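Shipment paperwork, digital attachment
Item: protein structure file
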Amino acid sequence: MRKRDYYLDQLVAYQNRPFVKVITGMRRCGKSSLLSLFEEHLISSGIKKTQIIRMNFESMAYDHIQEYHELYSKITERMSPNEDRYYLLLDEIQLVKSWEKTVNSLLVDTNVDIYLTGSNAFLLSSELSTLLSGRYVEIKMLPLSFKEYLDFIDAPVTSDPEVFFPNYLLYGGLPTIPMLLDNVETVAAFLTGIYSTVIMKDVVQRNQVRDAALLDSVLRFLAANVGNIVSTKKISDYLTSSGRKTTSDTIDNYLRMLESAFIVYRVNRFDLKGKQFLKTQEKFYMVDTGIRYSLAGQRNADYGHILENVIFLELLRRGYEVSIGKVGSLKIDFVATKADEKIYYQVAATIMDPDTRARELAPLQAIKDNYKKVILTMDKMVFSDYEGIKNVNIIDFLLLLS
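Attachment content:
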């Protein structure tokens, strides 16, 4: 099993700390495998197998556990007073009704270190936040980064990473993809299956969506418009003109459902001069470019916007809060903030053309503060520093080489 050190290191660092570890992310992004890796770590560090209680609620073995009383009983009956501490690893815990009451009670009644995974943002509902106030930490898991992807496909160290980048852009970074790349039809079938599973299980069923076809149309619109400014009205008007009569309120509800299932990410605009977030003209990015491909195909592929999607996900992996920047009438692709750090990013396929370069530089030049400003391109190098703006190759950025 391939290690994903970025996430595993977090679990190891949090081991035995007095709070619940909650791993969230879309289905098939690697959450269960991460728990398995952590279980291996526990055993290799001297923890006995009898001290580890592992349950996956997508398995038929635990399908009979429907609510929190039964969950509590099944867990505690496996505990012995002779053991100092137990390690509880629970997969897709949101499938058990009122599971958070069990977790809270276990923290009170037993000596247990708890690790949970879930594929829906409702996992961290207000009720859970109330019960576990200050006693949980969320680890947000995403599909493979490009750096991880190269490891998963066993790319030779001496090879040029850029050779493998087109497949990563097209088929995405779900951990199963590298094993399927020898057959394009298999990749396409896998991505279609993942989409169907996520939509049917994590959105339609959970939210009791009556018009699944409309939800499908909304997501396909977002996939075809990655990186474009959109609004609920724009989506509603487009679907209505296509014969799918709907309202902005319905679209807004569907967007929230898709966000909760970690399928899409909403990015708000931030007015740098007014120093406030704006409530209109947002962007949406997909959790994985392969999912985007399965929904929109290559015919709707805007190379620059797909690059934006990859950079956006990478910034999330690195722990940044990400927004779109607005300075006057100009737009900054990303404003990335983390504690006191702030970085402005423009993303473009190339700026070799002088007019394109001037257009991409203009928003960064209009910013008057002294925070770092970077333009990311696929160009090998156009300039290293221009009026305080750095030009960084996208591959180097993704591989932490610059």
